[in-house]
Structures are given as C-alpha cells and as structure tokens.
C-alpha cells in the first residue's frame, strides 16, 4: 500500500521537478505520462514474464486500478493543500484532515485487495506473488532515473 502511495507521489514529483517545461503543456504532460506508462508496461511484461494474452487482460485492469488510486490521492492532496494554506484552520479541521489522509490509505488498501481478485483471473500464482515486488523494483528504477536527471541538470547548471 505504501509502495503505491509512494509511486504515485513520486510520479507527481517527477512531473513537477524533472520536466517543468513539459508540465506547463498539457499535451506534453500527457505524452510524458504515456511514456512512463509504456515503460511500466514493458518493465512489468519482462519482469512478470507476461504472455501476450496476459498483457491484453492485465494492463487494462492495472490501469483502471491506478486511475482509481490516483483519484484517491488527488482528493487527499487537494484537502491537504487547502488545510495547509488556510491561515485560520482549527484543530478540528486539522484532525478531520488527518483522519481523511489515513482513511484514504485504507481506501487504497481495500481497492488493491479488490483488484487482487481480478488479477487472480489473469496472473498465475507466482506472477501474482511477484507483482508487489515488481512494483517496488519499478519504483526504485524510476527514482534512480529521477536522481540521474537531477544530478545531470545540477552538473549542467554548474557549468
């Protein structure tokens, strides 16, 4: 659960920090997200050893789950931003916002559990077991790429 939360947060940070020019253009941002989605598909296909038939069934389900996870995450970010920017937020509002943040995590965990049942119809037992590990590996890979871009940009700015 934390991994998906981290992944979604990471993707958003990368969009905002790694490619500010693309973030300004909607079409550029969409293209960038499609590239990440395609890279993830390639990575998952290779690591989980998905057949063509499995790919055709798995990725629509996975994308649907990710979209719902993103909606939950966006709702939380909006609320967090609203409370953080409110100069006159009360203790009750802070408490409600905090509870909502944790409830969102519970909602995401329940969502993942529901999708587990759908994945059981597509993946074999070993692939199902490896799925969370592959998600973590993908997140690490994305973080490494982000760090490489960031250090390259820092080096370019120093020259």
Structure in a nutshell:
By secondary structure, this protein is mainly α.
Globular, elongated, flat, extended or rod-shaped: what is the shape? Answer: flat
Count of domain modules? 1
Q: Give the overall pLDDT as a whole number.
A: 84
Counting DSSP H or I runs of 4 or more residues, the number of helices is 6
Task: List the uncertain runs.
Answer: none
- Beta-strand content: under 5%
Return Rg in Å.
18 Å
Give helix and strand order, one letter per element, not per position.
HHHHHH
Please tally the β strands and state the result.
Answer: 0
N- and C-termini, Cα separation: 41 Å
So what's the oligomer here?
A: single chain
What does this structure look like?
- With 159 residues, the chain is mainly α.
- The protein has one domain.
- It is built from six helices and no strands.
Features:
89% helix; flat
How is the secondary structure organized here?
Blueprint: H1 2-17, H2 20-24, H3 26-48, H4 52-85, H5 91-120, H6 125-158
Helix pairs in contact: 1-6, 3-6, 4-5
């Amino acid at each position: 659960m934390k991994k998906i939360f981290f992944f979604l947060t990471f993707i958003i940070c990368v969009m905002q920090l790694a490619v500010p020019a693309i973030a300004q253009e909607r079409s550029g941002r969409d293209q960038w997200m499609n590239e990440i989605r395609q890279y993830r598909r390639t990575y998952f296909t290779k690591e989980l050893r998905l057949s063509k038939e499995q790919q055709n069934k798995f990725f629509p389900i996975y994308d649907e789950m990710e979209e719902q996870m993103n909606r939950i995450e966006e709702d939380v970010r909006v609320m967090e931003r609203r409370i953080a920017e409110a100069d006159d937020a009360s203790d009750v509002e802070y408490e409600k916002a905090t509870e909502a943040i944790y409830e969102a995590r519970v909602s995401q965990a329940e969502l993942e559990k529901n999708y587990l049942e759908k994945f059981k119809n597509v993946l074999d037992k070993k692939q199902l077991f490896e799925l969370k590990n592959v998600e973590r590996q993908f997140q690490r890979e994305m973080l490494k790429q982000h760090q490489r871009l960031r250090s390259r940009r820092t080096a370019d700015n120093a020259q």
